[in-house]
């Protein structure tokens, strides 16, 4: 039995990562209070992943102390610093809050999403093959969710949007309208990276399939009506196109423009709704979209909340409690949610829909500097390794992983300007941050990027 498991690759540490991605397809349980399910299957999967990697890490250290062969790699000082600094900041802001007990669930959530799961993925991905398996799983998830979303939009069984149930949300449901958009955008970016920068020795069919998948995912991304996902996808794709040169960039932009004209103008796919949604991004003064007004009002409230406690904020999960005290009167009492199997309900506005302002208001300068410093370090290291891999051309067999991971980091940094954490899809964000962490900090990725021989038993 053990040899059969090893032959199938089921003993690889990446397996729990792939299982967690698959669990994201499970429809949420909307029978709980307020229609929310609390702990989701993906949360449980991420917990198993963290425990799996923690056990492997402890076993590796035990064997290292006894002089045995090191079967699992350990964290490098750089990785420990990047993951440890936010941990310390989260702990400080939780203890310093007015009600540490009420802030404790927020501390655990931040720790799960930005430290434990990314760190577990860093340890689980042993080489480029594992990274490609994770990328493939995300693309498959995107295609499945995107396909369901297109059917929802076409048959009027999606989430409610402007009085019609035409918003594509996949299996994530109307209570997590960003879920499918995030998954589809991730898949689109990864597929485009694989198509533009295919791995060395890839079969001839891989590139057209990857580019075709990226093109197919444009439709469900558009039908998600998610402005944040649209805005974040643009710079991520431009980065990937820039890796191929100016000519490819111009040709790709022309092709996308032509496809958009044919899709929206020729076939009339949600023409009016898409035009209104795009226009609402910049409408602030004349006749702004209600959601845009609420968003900017929440941003202002978050800034005022931060000024109340500049150093450590009001504590994790403290934004809703202080929101009404600092928000303007025009703020809505909640957002409407309906469709895709969910009866009409008003969802409370629990965050400012801007991750940076959420952290600033709840964790002050301590949490903001630590978290943004960690993300900045990841992005800088990822870009440097991508540059090293690109300079070696086709001789570097891991350029596809680097391009996908770096573009996803760019996507996430931009998306956090227009969104934050929440809902079952947040676990996918943690897994993607883990992929970026692996590319930025893993010595195995560095060896591949610089075409150096792999070093056995090295730390990550």
From TrEMBL:
The O-antigen ligase-related domain, residue ranges: 214-372
Record localization: Membrane
Membrane topology reported for the UniProt record: Multi-pass membrane protein
Domain of life: Bacteria
InterPro entries according to UniProt: O-antigen_ligase-rel_domated, WaaL-like
Transmembrane segments: 38-58, 79-98, 110-126, 133-154, 174-198, 205-223, 253-270, 364-383
CC annotations in GO: membrane
Keyword terms: Membrane, Transmembrane, Transmembrane helix
Protein name as annotated: O-antigen ligase-related domain-containing protein
């Amino acid at each position: 039995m053990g040899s059969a498991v090893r032959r199938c690759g089921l003993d690889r540490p990446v397996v729990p990562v792939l299982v967690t991605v698959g669990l994201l397809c499970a429809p949420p349980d909307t029978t709980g209070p307020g229609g929310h399910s609390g702990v989701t299957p993906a949360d449980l999967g991420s917990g198993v992943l963290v425990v799996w990697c923690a056990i492997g890490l402890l076993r590796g250290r035990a064997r290292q102390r006894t002089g045995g062969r090191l079967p699992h790699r350990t964290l490098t000082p750089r990785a420990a610093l990047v993951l440890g600094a936010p941990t310390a900041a989260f702990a400080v802001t939780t203890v310093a809050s007015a009600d540490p007990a009420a802030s404790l669930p927020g501390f655990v959530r931040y720790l799960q999403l930005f430290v434990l799961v990314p760190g577990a993925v860093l340890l689980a991905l042993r080489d480029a093959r594992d990274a490609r398996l994770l990328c493939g799983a995300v693309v498959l998830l995107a295609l499945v969710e995107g396909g369901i979303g297109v059917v929802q939009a076409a048959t009027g069984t999606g989430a409610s949007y402007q009085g019609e149930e035409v918003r594509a949300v996949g299996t994530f449901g109307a209570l997590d309208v960003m879920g499918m958009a995030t998954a589809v955008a991730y898949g689109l970016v990864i597929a485009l990276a694989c198509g533009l920068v295919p791995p060395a020795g890839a079969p001839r069919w891989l590139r057209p399939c990857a580019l075709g998948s990226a093109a197919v995912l444009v439709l469900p991304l558009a039908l998600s009506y998610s402005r944040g996902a649209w805005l974040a996808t643009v710079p991520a794709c431009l980065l990937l196109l820039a890796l191929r040169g100016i000519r490819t960039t111009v040709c790709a932009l022309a092709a996308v423009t032509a496809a958009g004209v044919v899709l929206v103008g020729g076939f009339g796919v949600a023409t009016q709704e898409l035009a209104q949604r795009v226009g609402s991004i910049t409408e602030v003064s004349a006749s702004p979209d209600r959601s845009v007004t609420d968003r900017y009002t929440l941003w202002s409230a978050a800034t005022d909340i931060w000024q109340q406690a500049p150093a450590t904020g009001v504590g994790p999960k403290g934004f809703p409690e202080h929101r009404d005290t600092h928000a303007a009167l025009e703020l809505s009492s909640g957002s409407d949610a309906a469709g895709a199997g969910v009866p009409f309900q008003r969802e409370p506005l629990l965050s400012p829909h801007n991750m940076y302002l959420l952290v600033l208001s709840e964790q002050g300068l301590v949490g903001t500097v630590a978290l943004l410093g960690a993300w900045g370090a990841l992005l800088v290291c990822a870009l440097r390794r991508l540059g090293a891999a690109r300079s070696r051309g086709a001789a570097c067999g891991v350029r596809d992983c680097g391009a996908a991971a770096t573009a996803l980091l760019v996507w996430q940094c931009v998306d956090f300007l227009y969104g934050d954490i929440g809902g079952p899809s947040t676990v996918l964000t943690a897994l993607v941050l883990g992929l970026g962490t692996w590319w930025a900090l893993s010595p195995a990725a560095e060896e591949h990027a610089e075409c150096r021989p792999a070093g056995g038993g090295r730390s990550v």
